[in-house]
């Protein structure tokens, strides 16, 4: 039945692709042509959902040899595209859209979101994928000996340094206020892996480096969140960024690194270490989301926090899942739905950070926190806290819906219009 249905899906989608191919490219379509394209995409997506509703576990088992192969997210969606034509965008379809502005694309990544959402809804397939994404990347393993030998790894957008018993990870996307893009996400996962793999490291520290922006030149900034210019230019990927950051380095910060997937006890399977966030200037969007999984947050007194995703038209990662646990439902709605900004000196900041200090005292406060969190029992207790606060099934179920909703939002007309207006304004400013 699987292969008969797969053949039928491939034939149906192939015919639909022919209709799309006969139309002008998206920027050149008139209203009627674009409406036709949207109807065709909607029909194909409905067919994919029906197929996955029947066959998700069978498809995943086929791609992973009954869950004996570990395919990371990029490998999984590519294998699915190759093995089941029409279920996922092909290599040729993705290559044709590479480098195009988001508004010029057909939205093939939405189909990746439908597939990943179906996989994550399955306890068996979704659990296996989550475990796979918690394992060290090949790049991290290749750099481990060099980090152990030198205590320093300098990546394109991240600097990792061993200082005493702490691994200091510094964001260095200086041209864009340490905003997140595909490169930063990949570099962060490598740095987090290395910090968790090196036995000399007892504590990790995250901090933003100095930036080039005229208003903040030579000042440290924690993070400006998602790089909206990159989103406008079609350079924020679903697999590498939108879902990859949640399943990858942020989940590793929260739940640890999976080093022995065959061990019976979770405590024997994973390496956990406590993490500190040092916030200079601001933590916006993804930067604030990051703080929600850290064990100690120290902010300079002039810093602020915000999650402007609703204003931008997207979902703030797992902020909807994690912020209510820390701040309560009412404040969460004010921050996420109303765009409320929390300053480090506001009373409500106690829900987001543990200590507020003058800028000159931030380094000393971080050193004190390292000394406290390096205690032997800290890692064991934070592992238990992670299990209690965010059960794995809850995390999996949230991500299943997030996969579908977030990628659709990044192709929605209101988001495309907003990022285009911002980009045009930045071009006008020079």
Short précis:
With 430 residues, the chain is α/β, with parallel strands linked by helices.
Supply the key terms:
430 residues; alpha/beta; 7-stranded mixed β-sheet; 3-stranded mixed β-sheet; 21 helices
Number of strands: 12
* Rg, nearest Å: 22 Å
What is the overall silhouette? globular
Structural class: alpha/beta
**How many helical stretches?**
21
- Average pLDDT reading: 96
Task: Please describe what this structure looks like.
With 430 residues, this protein is of the alpha/beta class. The chain has 21 helices and twelve strands. It has helices at 2-21, 31-63, 73-83, 91-97, 108-121, 123-133, 138-150, 182-197, 228-232, 238-242, 244-247, 249-255, 266-269, 286-291, 309-312, 319-327, 329-336, 362-373, 376-389, 392-409, 413-429, and strands at residues 152-154, 158-163, 166-171, 203-208, 257-258, 270-271, 275-279, 282-284, 296-300, 304-306, 342-343, 355-357. The strands form three sheets. The chain has a seven-stranded mixed β-sheet with strand order 1-2-3-4-7-9-12, sandwiched between helices. It has a three-stranded mixed β-sheet with strand order 8-10-11. It has a two-stranded antiparallel sheet with strand order 5-6. Helix 8 links the parallel strand 3 and strand 4 (203-208). Helix 1 (2-21) runs antiparallel to helix 2, helix 7 (138-150) crosses helix 8 and helix 16 packs across helix 17.
């Amino acid at each position: 039945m699987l292969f008969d249905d797969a053949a039928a899906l491939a034939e149906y989608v192939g015919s639909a692709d022919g209709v799309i191919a006969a139309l002008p490219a998206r920027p050149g379509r008139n209203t009627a042509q674009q409406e036709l394209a949207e109807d065709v995409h909607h029909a194909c997506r409905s067919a994919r959902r029906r197929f996955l509703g029947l066959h998700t576990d069978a498809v995943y088992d086929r791609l992973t040899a009954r869950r004996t192969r570990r395919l990371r997210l990029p490998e999984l969606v590519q294998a699915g595209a190759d093995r089941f034509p029409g279920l996922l965008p092909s290599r040729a379809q993705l290559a044709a859209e590479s480098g195009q502005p988001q508004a010029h694309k057909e939205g093939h990544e939405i189909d990746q979101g439908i597939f990943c959402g179906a996989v994550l809804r399955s306890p068996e397939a979704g659990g296996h994928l989550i475990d796979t994404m918690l394992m060290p990347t090949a790049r991290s393993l290749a750099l481990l000996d060099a980090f152990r030998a030198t205590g320093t790894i300098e990546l394109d957008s991240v600097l990792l340094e061993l200082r005493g018993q702490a691994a200091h990870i510094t964001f260095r996307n200086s041209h864009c206020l340490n905003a997140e893009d595909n490169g930063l996400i990949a570099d962060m996962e490598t740095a987090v892996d290395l910090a968790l793999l090196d036995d000399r490291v007892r504590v990790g520290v995250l901090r933003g480096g100095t930036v080039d922006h005229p208003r903040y030149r030579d000042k440290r900034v924690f993070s400006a969140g998602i790089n909206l210019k990159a989103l406008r230019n079609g350079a924020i990927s679903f697999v590498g960024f939108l879902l990859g950051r949640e399943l990858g380095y942020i989940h590793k910060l929260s739940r640890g690194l999976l080093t022995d997937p065959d061990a019976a006890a979770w405590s024997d399977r994973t390496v956990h270490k406590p993490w500190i966030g040092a916030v200079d200037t601001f933590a916006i969007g993804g930067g604030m989301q990051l703080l929600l999984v850290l064990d100690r947050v120290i902010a300079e007194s002039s810093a602020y926090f915000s999650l402007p995703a609703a204003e931008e038209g997207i979902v703030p990662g797992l902020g909807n899942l994690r912020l209510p646990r820390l701040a309560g439902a009412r404040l969460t709605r004010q921050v996420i739905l109303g765009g409320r900004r929390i300053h480090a000196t506001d009373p409500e900041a106690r829900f987001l950070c543990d200590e507020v200090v003058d800028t000159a005292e931030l380094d000393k406060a971080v050193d004190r926190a390292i000394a406290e969190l390096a205690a032997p029992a800290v890692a064991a207790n934070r592992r238990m806290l992670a299990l209690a606060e965010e059960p794995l099934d809850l995390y999996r179920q949230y991500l299943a819906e997030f996969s579908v909703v977030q990628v659709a939002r990044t192709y929605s007309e209101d988001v495309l219009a907003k990022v285009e207006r911002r980009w045009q304004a930045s071009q006008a400013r020079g």
